[in-house]
Design goal:
Strand content: 5-15%
CATH superfamily: Aldolase class I
CATH architecture: Alpha-Beta Barrel
Strand order of the largest sheet: 1-2-3-4-5-6-7-8
CATH class: Alpha Beta
Structural class: alpha/beta
Number of domains: 1
Number of strands: 8
Order of helices and strands: EHEHEHEHEHHEHEHEHHHHH
CATH topology: TIM Barrel
Number of helices: 13
Shape: globular
Length: about 290
């Protein structure tokens, strides 16, 4: 089974107070569309920018909105291990199905330090964890050897990796699969390469675009699951103008601009990140029109 995990933004005001009404309005279409899970407080959900009480507020609002209809995967990453433990405990207590744990750092971390960090969060929180490899922001990369060690820790159940380029993603997946036991789920982010990763054997697409536009992402996921690689690649190619925007401006800035242009919520990304303006914003608007995503 191929799972689509949709990652929405977390609407909040300039003081970092989560707009729970706007969040519910973003979550309901994801449930109705039939996504496999919702990735709350991921990077697209700006988890590092939110205080603990606001992260808990977001989880509680999401659980109230979603109930048991769709599993909630909640970002629990933090610089300090004890803080990550508390965030994971909060998420579990609020009703999250699993946590998403990145190796956040200021001082570069060693593999042994990341192992101890992840093991402690899994053991002390009791929340099933998906490891989150995001070297573009954490400046730490999970090697297959480290993933293999962590995959044998009780409570660590899956891996979210940035998908390599299409010509390399099969090798990436093979190296990870060889390192982990059967039943340990391997999934991928990086929307523009995600279809190639799924076709190579990835079990989950952790998707930014699905957090706002679940329909096209579900169509690609279902084509992969049906074994129709040509259709999955055709649908993926159709979204290349959007993928180009993601690569140029970052998926976070583009998705915030999309949400604003569509009138779904009036949240801006947390400062110091600035909303897209001028030519960049117009490119997003033109792409929404051309792809009929409005």
């Amino acid at each position: 089974m191929t799972v689509l995990s949709a990652f929405p933004i977390t609407p909040a005001d300039a003081d970092g107070v989560v707009d729970t009404g706007a969040l519910r309005a973003l979550l309901n279409p994801l449930v109705e569309a039939g996504v496999g899970s919702i990735g709350l407080l991921g990077s697209t959900g700006t988890y590092p920018f939110l205080a603990r009480d606001q992260r808990r507020r977001a989880v509680e609002a999401a659980v109230a909105a979603v109930g048991d209809r769709v599993p909630l995967l909640v970002g629990v990453g933090a610089l300090r291990t004890d803080e990550a433990v508390r965030l994971a405990q909060d998420a579990k207590g609020a009703g999250a199905a699993a946590g998403l744990l990145a190796a956040m750092s200021y001082t570069p971390l060693t593999e042994d330090e990341v192992f101890a960090h992840c093991e402690a969060v899994a053991r002390e929180s009791g929340l099933p964890l998906h490891l989150y490899d995001n070297p573009g922001t954490t400046h730490f990369r999970f090697t297959p050897a480290l993933v293999g060690r962590l995959a044998r820790v009780p409570g660590i159940v899956a891996m979210k990796s940035p998908a390599a380029e299409p010509e390399a993603v099969a090798g990436q997946h093979e190296a990870l699969r060889a390192a982990v036991p059967a039943g340990f789920a391997l999934g991928y982010s990086g929307d523009w390469n995600a279809v190639a990763a799924l076709l190579a054997g990835g079990e989950t697409w952790y998707s930014v675009v699905a957090g706002l536009f679940p329909g096209p992402a579900l169509a690609m996921t279902r084509a992969v699951e049906a074994g129709d690689a040509a259709e999955a690649q055709r649908l993926n190619a159709r979204l290349e103008p959007l993928w180009d925007l993601f690569r140029t401006y970052s998926s976070l800035r583009v998705i915030y601009a999309c949400a604003d242009l569509l009138g779904l919520c009036r949240a801006a990304p947390p400062r110091p990140i600035l909303p897209l303006a001028g030519e960049a914003r117009q490119r997003v608007a033109d792409t929404l029109d051309a792809l009929d995503l409005r």
